[in-house]
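Now for a typical sample entry:
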Amino acid sequence: MARVHKLVPKSIWSERYELINEFERLLRRQNHTHVIKLFLHISRQEQLERFKQRLDDPARNWKISESDYEERELWDDYVKAYEDVFAETSTKHAPWYIIPSNHKWFRNLAVSQIVADTLGDLRMQLPAPSVDLEAIRRQYHRAAKGDGRA
């Protein structure tokens, strides 16, 4: 993260909050896009346990990297940066959801419920048919009676 590693000055990364909000407002206003932002949070202890699983399980070895432990040393800096992101960019039309994710079953349940609720709120309906259904139905019944054509 640019802020944690001081890759850009505060004037740059702090301006990005409003740019994010503007972009999401634009998506909503022009395209009727609904934005859902999910932060899958695990505890420090859970992260360390997952690192152990990556080391112990050959099928997970590919997931581990040298930077994992270096970044872990910056945990508190990341937490502060994320808290600011949530505070600055969670809006009525593009909210952040912080999902406790130590237990994958709960994470999956929470995420699926948020997505399902959001879809339900859209009150989507199937489009009206663009053809004369009665005419199509008559054609079907003629074909079903076996008009001799394959």
